[in-house]
Request: fold
Amino acid sequence: MWPPPDILRAVTREPESGARRLRTKATTWLAENWRRPPGRRLLFVALFSLALSFVPMLGSLGYFGALATAPVFAWLGIFVGVDHGLGLGADPEPAAPMPTLGWALRELAGLWLTMVALLALGALWNPNCDLLGGLSWFVFGPACSGALGVVAGLWGARLVVARRASRPRALLWGSLPFWACLGVALWRLYFDPVVFAFDPFWGHFAGPIYDESVSLGRRDLNFRVYNFAAAAAALALWLGSFARVRGQGAWVARVWRRPGLALTLVAGVGLSASYGLRPSKYGFHQTRESLREVLRGQFESDHFIIHYPARTLAAVEIEDIAREHEHAWRRLEATLGRAPQRKLHSWIFDDEKQKRWLFGAGNVEVSMPYRGEIYLTYRSFPHNVLHHELAHSFAGEFGDPLMGLSRRGLFLNVGLIEGVANALAPRPVDELDLHDQAAVLDRLDKRPPLGAIMGLGFWSQSASRAYTAAGSFCLWLLEQHGPEALMAVYQSAGDFEAAYGTSLATLETQWVEFLRARTMSEASIEKERLRFERRSVFRRPCAHRAAQLGARAERALGTGDTDAAIEALGTLCEIEAREPHHRLALATAQAIAGQSEVALATIDDARGLEDLTDMDQARIEEAAGDVALAAEAWDEARAAYTRASGHALRENPRRALQIKLRAAELGAQGKVERAAAVARYFSLFDPVTPPWVTRIRSGAIAVELGQSEGLSALGHYLAALQLSQAGLVREARPHIEATIGPRPDAPDLWTPELRRAAGFLLVELRMRQGDDPGARRALSVLEELAGEHAGYRLRVEQWRARLDDWTELS
Reply:
């Protein structure tokens, strides 16, 4: 019992004895109970839970906490089952086994409640954003795992008690299911095309930690039904083994003589077999065969076998997708001088929802070098992550034999794994190349020390900081010392002395000096500030809860339930009160519901938040402009958009802002019809509709704008953009040609951002239609527009390399 009765008496009946008598009573109770296994288990759980409660994320009620404690409770259950099972002896009274099972589960429940209570108490110093939802994770995780452990422990005791009863031997037998199931889970993770796993004793492992959208669902329920059906059959057989009936025989024979146990055994075996033999149907495992049933399309090129969903945009563009795969292969092989010796399988999922169900990581692209497979979500051409994921496969040629990673023994150098891939496939961000981005990180004093990310510590940093720092450092090593040394340090998992003749600290000093010598504008620094402010998932205690609320709001808007969306987003604003984008999402939902005044008040609340970045302020003003534009309050919209334009913004959102500002200006000039047409293109605060409906509507509006005086170039550009994103390259090209004519610097596109976007779209469409000379002419103009900006120059170089390969691959 907790608290122990004698301690309660010391507090309630002997107050005059003071702290000394209370301490004596507590010490005596601990000393007496420490000698007994139940007392030791209770003390262990209390100390373990208390210590864990100080660890961010792991020490709170939620997914990470359940994942960390489920195997611990599985072992506790095994110990509980063994001890209670041994207490029965070899030949107990017929009625004894069932109460023994009850006492074992009761002890486990006490341990579980102790842990949950202490972790809930830990919310005072370790924030927990969803106690009820977190509790459900602990029911499906540690509670279920512990109960299954009890069943395994009872059987472990039963298998030895008829012989020479031995607690260590019983624990060995009782732990066999734990190790067998773990072996199956690891086998599946290694060989099958998934990054998630369901294990009876470990619970639900969702895959990469950067995918924050982790929630309990029907497959978790299916899996536990499967587990407990098997456990019920095992318990029926265990109870039957104690039966005293005429003609003692095999345990199964004894069960048949007891109808209740026989029915439980048959039902348990049948139900568990139904689930276990068809895991892909119930979502707790997938195989290549089950993936091919969904991704029925297949295209084979020189170096790839590409699997994709039929009758989708991926199917429409599959030949161009295959050429992009081959182009990425050529670039990487030219850099490293070595390539995989087998064809790689590329699995392309239609969207994040499909990818999460089938593969396990909806928001994260993944490469498995040892499998020779990459897993991607379909994106508009050219896929911006394909080169990075393929780079992992090429680096895998230099990695360890087991996984193709930068690993030595149990040490995994995640900084090199991701840094080398980033270096081999660097991605510019507007005017910034990868080194510029790292320089901004350094200027903002957000650059993590390399020693902190050259290992598993990589995951303790936010993805934007860790990937940028590791990528720039590895790219610098590649540029300064060549690919051989970089692959040597990758192969050694970080032996910089052997590969470069000097220490990591010395190389880091040289790299930082290189970064600080680069000239950076204040605007460039401000544009990236928001990106690098984001914290690691382990430092955001509400990350998973926030993702769930965001998804719930999106689903509610999709069904027209604005009240539910507003409620979910309101909760989101409460649990992450310092995040302005949550308030802007809430304002959007309120505006969709027709609550314009309330939306403006929510936007005002966002203005009052502390530590707003320049991009935050730009988005807040743009949101205010959107509300005014939708209400055709042209002057208010123009003022808000003008304020937003004064802040640092990335190129994509700045283009949208420039078009909205033009609409507000036209409205203020009395050209209401044209202004309203531009506003309709953005579908401001319309109820959420399927993407294909939005695309058709936006395309029709863009064609209409192309026929309007003063907006012809803009309309044709927007029409070309919508058609190209729908895979209609042939139909899109006439519009982009009409937009910019012979040069992508036509005055009708009134900003450099619009002219650049139109120019790159022209290059893409001409190239995909086989017009290599025309694409090169357009690219030459873009090279002139790039000036001294490293990011723009890198993008031009990447397109030129694509053109070089495309001609040969066509």
User: Anything to note?
Assistant: The chain is about 65% helix and 5% strand.
